[in-house]
Design a protein that fits this description.
This protein has helices spanning about 1-30, 35-50, 55-65, 80, 90-95, 100-105, 110-125, 145-160, 170-180, 185-195, 195-205. The protein is built from eleven helices and no strands. The mean pLDDT is about 90.
């Protein structure tokens, strides 16, 4: 009976993970029309975690959890996510709420993966200097969220979107470094810089 219960819990955890991953992909299609962004962000996160000296289990957990960073956009109107041009102030505030929705969607789900995913969803728009969406700063921001923040911004900048042209790889690296200590954790920026070759290769830029 104990073995059967363990197997059932494991099967439920796998099913839960699969459902949330599928939802994350649906969000990406709704948001940008291509799911490669999630895969690239996950790979960047894994590389940075490795550079920071995390063990294999932590790296794999972070890679999976980071895929769900924008899952709260399920609750955001599609016309705002795909809008051509700049959002109005009121529209931008609506889109900002995806961090709250994302946290609420995952926070009550069991398992460490969901807990980390919930924190990343909630905090990946926070800034080291405290000027992010919900006002956390420095080490108040979960380390995996700090890492996902750089990975997400980097990929967004080097990618063409409905509202912008793709940035050059040189301009993107320059921007990331200019935001060290402001938007981004300086230690994570340093690790990011140490992985430039691998990250650039994945980006295809």
């Amino acid at each position: 009976v104990a073995i059967d219960n363990m197997r059932l819990k494991n099967d439920m955890a796998i099913t839960q993970e699969s459902v949330f991953m599928n939802l994350a992909e649906i969000v990406e299609e709704k948001n940008h029309g291509e799911g490669e962004h999630l895969l690239r962000v996950s790979q960047y996160v894994g590389i940075i975690c490795e550079e920071l000296g995390m063990d294999e289990n932590e790296v794999n957990m972070a890679k999976k959890a980071s895929i769900m960073h924008d899952i709260g956009k399920l609750a955001i109107p599609t016309h705002l996510l795909g809008k051509q041009g700049k959002l109005s102030d009121s529209e931008y505030r609506i889109v900002q709420d995806h961090v709250v929705y994302g946290y609420n969607i995952m926070a009550k789900s069991p398992g460490r993966l969901m807990k980390i995913g919930a924190l990343i969803a909630q905090q990946h728009h926070e800034k080291w200097n405290g000027e992010g969406y919900i006002g956390l700063k420095g080490e108040e921001i979960n380390i995996f969220a700090r890492i996902t923040a750089i990975a997400d911004v980097f990929d967004a900048l080097v990618s063409e979107r409905s509202y912008k042209e793709a940035w050059s790889i040189e301009d993107t690296y320059a921007y990331i470094n200019s935001e060290s200590g402001k938007h981004f954790d300086p230690e994570v920026v340093e690790a990011f810089n140490c992985c430039k070759d691998r990250i650039t290769e994945i980006s295809g830029s």
